[in-house]
Amino acid sequence: MEFFHKVTRFPFMHTRKVWYGLSAALIIASIGLVVFRGLNLGVDFTGGVVVETNFTQAPNIEGLRTALQKAGVANAQVQVFGSSRDILVRLPPDPNAKGDQIGAHILEVFTAVAPGVKLQSTAVVGPQVGQELFVKGGWALFATLVLILIYVLFRFTPKLALGAILAVLHDPICVIGFFALSQMTFDLTAIAAILAVIGYSLNDTVIVFDRIRERARTARRLSISQVIDESINQTLSRTLMTKLVTLLVVLALLFFGGETLHAFSAALVIGILAGTYSSIYISSALALDLGLRTDDLLERKSTKPEEVDGLP
Amino acid sequence: MIAYPRWKIALVAIVLLLGIFLAVPNLFGEENALQLARDRAAVIDSDRTAVEKILKDSGVTPSGAFLEQGRLTLRFSNKQDQLKARDLINEARPGQFTVALSQASRVPEWMRNLGLSPVKLGLDLRGGVYLVYQVDVQGAVKQLLDRHEQDFRASLRAARVPYQDVVVDYPADRVRVLFNDADGFTKGKAAILADNRNMTLTDTTVGGAPALELKLTPQDIKEREDYAVQQNIVILRNRLNSPELAVSEPQVARQGVDRIAIQLPGLQNSAEVKKILGKTATLEFRMVDESNNPLEAAGTGRVPLGSKLYYTRDKQPVLLKRDVVVTGDQLTDASFQPNTQDGPAVSVSLDARGAAKMLKNTQENLGHLMAVVFIDRSREKNAQGVDVDRTTEEVINRATIRGVFSNNFMISGVNPIEGRELALLLRAGGLAAPLTPVEERAIGPSLGQDNIDKGVHAMVFGMLAAFIFMAVYYKVFGLIADLTLAANVILLTALLSLLGAALTLPGIAAVVLTVGMAVDANILIYERIREELRIGVSPRAAITAGFDRAFSAIFDSNVTAFIAGLVLWLFGAGAVRGFAVVLMLGIVTSMFTAVMGSRALVQVIYGGKRKIDHLSI
User: Fold this and answer.
1) What pTM, to 2 d.p., does this model score?
2) Where are the domains of chain B?
3) Fewer CB within 10 Å, N side or C side of chain A?
4) Does the beta-carbon distance from A238 to B524 stay under 8 Å?
5) Would you tell me which residues 66-85 of chain A have a C-beta closer than 8 angstroms to some C-beta of chain B?
6) Of B269, B462, B563, the CB nearest to A100
7) What's the mean pLDDT when you consider all of chain A?
């Protein structure tokens, strides 16, 4: 079986203004969403208390809320996660919170409402730790981008490297925008997913670049934009196939991995889609507009004499 | 023949066999077990024989037993035997062992002896408690300065050198000794240097009078901070291993500069453990200042030089000498004695240094009063949410020294609950710096099992989808890819088992993702082969070209993903780190299986043929 029996001839470079526009719109929308709607930061980052409970039957959430209020648990967010029998209670950071006590207290209140409820997990994160994790997460994203930039610079030319990094930046922004839009909990695993997305997206870009470099060296009669078009078309089958398989796998995580992996897999799905798009439509186009020329890609002949021969 | 060196095929075969061998322990599953630990000592072979005899005499036979890291694990085929055995051991040897209920793998002993073990599961998959404590490193530096202050005073007094005062300046990290005149300065400096050989002291003047200054260098401070964290880790381990707290496989590790992370697998209620872990209770022995009136000092607030005002439990003021005779960290052993003629008491033993000091002190002060000070530091938030250290110092006992003693004696004046706790804390050692809990996560066992089930489901379905897709889309080559994917998972399991890295739910997600990466590498190669075939290259040349030309792309793309994994590992914490570890290992195994493994398989299938007419791709 083969979906792409003939090599496609899509004029990617010719239509690049359209794709730039689309990307710009996505980025602006994402930033707008984050600024105006905000992220639903998880307990990892805000600090606070999260208690997960499991009921034998789907409980009445309003009833649980009132029961907690009556018991003196103030500012508690009560929400369903996963199935309707799984209830999550979230409390803002409290300097004197004792995790086990809060868990036991909430369990007590819930048992009075619905006997047979089980305590699944408790997490207490100090506000300072949360802030640190958030800052660390930001640094991790930054460090990954810088390290990858250095690697791509080392392997390719500065213009390609810059194109790759700009295109790769686009993907985490889209993922963060998605989190703002869906109000899914943004926590440490979401950061992990974004880093994985950066790795993946760059993977595609690098493969296209690899082909561009190869083509530029063999097909000298073509213009650079023709070389880029050909390269993207030639690798298109591979790009789409791998992403399809990866998506299959990630969808399995999304559907079967449970609540813990939900945000993680959702971030991956969005990230993979955005990454595939950006590595096909954006990264090489950016390199072209940054003034990439065929000469940049030819193997540099060493002008230095062989040093070994020069030794006495 | 397609050229592919035989040794590479052999290498692939050897690595795969080794991988299978290392991964096999994961197939045995777990059963109920007991874990026996001893207080500050390893469980040894003779203990094992003794315990096995106790059980055998009562007709309970463990299905397996082994010693590992100073702990004895006994496996039982059912829950009843496990509980019965626990009671039997506790009855036969009360207080000798910590007996904790746990789970252990059914791996046969000979495999275990070869160092083979199954993959460790993270807390999110096993259930348990995860605690992070912040070490007050600044407090540790303060303690160091205080100790220098006391040492200086002691040296000067011993040499009978008059001086104005010894002043500690915490923000400036320095201690200054103020003298009256140049003569005192010279003698004092000599006395201090004689006791502290390698100390660098600076001469200075304060308010016209000569003074001596000790300033901690950044190096000193860092060393002290490291010491405090390391020491606290040791103390926490000791506390977790005491029979009073029956926890199995506690893990204590440094996290970052000044944090300590503790993992307590299988633990459900952390309240008791936390109460003991964070405690900083310790003792000090001081002589009572009998020449001054404590009531007067308490009334006027003016405390005589060289003394310090304390209160007893019933709020009576007591003046104690500033010099400490013996501190809690010089205690080597402590045990609680509920019934002595003076009521409940703690019997203590001192180390050589403490014993020598105590001996000298009791000889010199026969007939005088000595006091025991109970010090408990706790950390609380005040109304503004700022950490406030509260130190409770109470004189629990004052007694006349009636005889000379050194390393063994009793302390009375404690209540039963306090006495038991004090004995545990004194035995485990005092914390080098106060601890504050900053993070706590507890995962119930049912959630753990739930997470395992979900993780396994996701893995099975994800991999099945990839397998079927590859086989349909690339036919024989797709099947080759499927074999290499399976090999990838085996190798990854083997590496995780070998390295002892804990598998978390995000880790399982990483396994699934590496399957994606391995598929990617295969697809890169196969698409390249198809391309070559399309432009009319012979099948044999297409295979070679496909593998060769795709390699640089595979390498580049894996390196970038590896960088992302590495950064995540460096910055991440907890379960996310588990993701990073598996991702990095998975990249290595998937590169190996997709590039070398599938090349070797292609060689085995097509290599022997003289002429290849058609590739099933």
Assistant:
1) 0.76
2) 6-24+450-606, 30-106, 138-219, 279-430
3) C
4) yes
5) none
6) B269
7) 83
